[in-house]
Design brief:
The protein has about 280 residues and is of the alpha/beta class. The chain is built from eight helices and 15 strands.
Length: about 280
């Protein structure tokens, strides 16, 4: 198995939204904002190369939105995903599976491209994976979350014949299992990857950045904050005990870390890059 971070570009969000009720005086020391209160975020995918199977976790944003939408979200359109794959020696045709932790716009819409006002797959040979719980939830959602979904792209996935819905937790690919969390959005599917004797957890929006590791540092984007903290507390305690390595999709500054439990609560400890063969 090879694990290769793949960039789908960067964007930004309001710092208050990223850290919820935590005062800016505290979070700004850990994750700085600019003069407009925007914090930089990565769109960091992860390629899991199993040989014949090449699984891309997440796909970024794509080119479907208006110039104003891109500007408001600090995203510069471009073929970021394709270029990053090419730089690492892979073509879009080589990807056999694209795994979505959930279906919010910044996680899945980059798997499709708009050409001549029509949608087309970025990865023509790939199946699309997400949890059945999230798929069903996306159909109904609610006014608070509805704008996070792109209905035309979800319809494209459905009509492609390549949509694969995950009913249960457990191993999905050799060495890659999924677990469901429901606080951020119902059916958030988190990959747990066995690699070199350690477990790498692609944290998605359960823990968006390393600065979000402390228990109460959760985002305002979470649908059910109390449930998020409950799920997160169990997950972080397990991470300490099992020495999990957390891989961050959205942290602009750090890719991976481990977690410790101190007198102050859960804290990020050792950082990793996933670029050196013996780094852990």
């Amino acid at each position: 198995m090879k694990l290769i971070p793949i960039s789908a570009g960067n964007f930004h969000c309001d710092g208050g939204a990223l850290f919820g009720v935590i005062p800016k005086k505290l979070w700004n020391k850990q994750y700085p904002a600019d003069d407009n209160n925007f914090t930089k975020l990565a769109l960091r995918c992860l390629l899991v190369d199993l040989g014949e199977q090449k699984i891309l976790i997440e796909a970024g944003i794509g080119n479907h939105y208006s110039e104003k939408h891109f500007e408001n979200n600090g995203y510069k359109p471009g073929n970021h995903l394709e270029k990053s794959l090419q730089q690492n020696g892979y073509s879009v045709n080589a990807i056999t599976d694209v795994f979505f932790t959930h279906l919010h716009w910044d996680h899945c819409t980059g798997a499709v491209k708009t050409e001549n006002e029509k949608l087309a797959p970025v990865f023509p040979n790939a199946n699309y994976w997400c949890s059945k719980i999230q798929w069903e939830h996306a159909k109904i959602s609610n006014p608070r979350e509805k704008t996070a979904y792109h209905s035309e792209i979800l319809r494209f996935f459905s009509e492609s014949g390549k949509l694969r819905l995950i009913d249960n937790e457990g191993e999905l690919f050799p060495g890659l299992s999924v677990r469901f969390f429901h606080g951020h959005t119902p059916g958030l599917a988190i990959p747990f990857i066995q690699h070199k004797g350690r477990t790498i957890v692609y944290t998605s929006d359960l823990v968006p950045t390393m600065a979000n590791v402390p228990l109460q540092w959760i985002a305002a984007y979470d649908l059910y904050p109390v449930k998020v903290m409950s799920e997160k507390e169990i997950f972080l305690a397990e991470s300490v005990k099992q020495r999990y390595i957390l891989f961050f999709e959205h942290d602009f500054y750090s890719k991976c870390c481990t977690v410790a439990h101190t007198e102050k609560g859960f804290e990020a400890t050792a950082k990793y890059k996933l670029s050196e063969p013996n780094e852990y």
